[in-house]
Amino acid sequence: MRAKLSYAVTAAVLVVYFVLAGSRGVMLIRSGTLLTVTFGVAVLILPVIGVWFLWKNTQFVRRANALAAELDAEGGLPVDELRRTPSGRVDRDSADEVFARRKAETEAAPEDWRTWFRLAVAYHDARDTPRARRAMQRAIALHDGRAVQAA
Length: 151
Description:
Elements: H1 2-31, H2 34-74, H3 92-108, H4 113-125, H5 129-143
């Protein structure tokens, strides 16, 4: 619940920023000189890119959470079996062991979104965020029945 609240607050702050930046861009465009119109258009581009990025990221999070809920209902969510350091961080060797098992599981059933979901969690535990995101995107695509490229 805390992560959802943090995400919602961050998204709200970004939306306020996008509105403020966009209004400044419109003010610059209304000035009417070549220089201010050019700057105004440039200022408007940033909020547009930001809104698109926020929208795509929100869609990704919602789809991943839906897969997690479905997998949880099936009893297939990965169990946290990772050893931790005294400070509470995941032990790297432990994460590597779990990752090796999840990778083998995914190679054995490459068209099963469930294995890709669990592999994404293993990548995340191993602190490999880009691969975790790609594996989750593949899980989402397989779940939705879309064709996917090799990860």
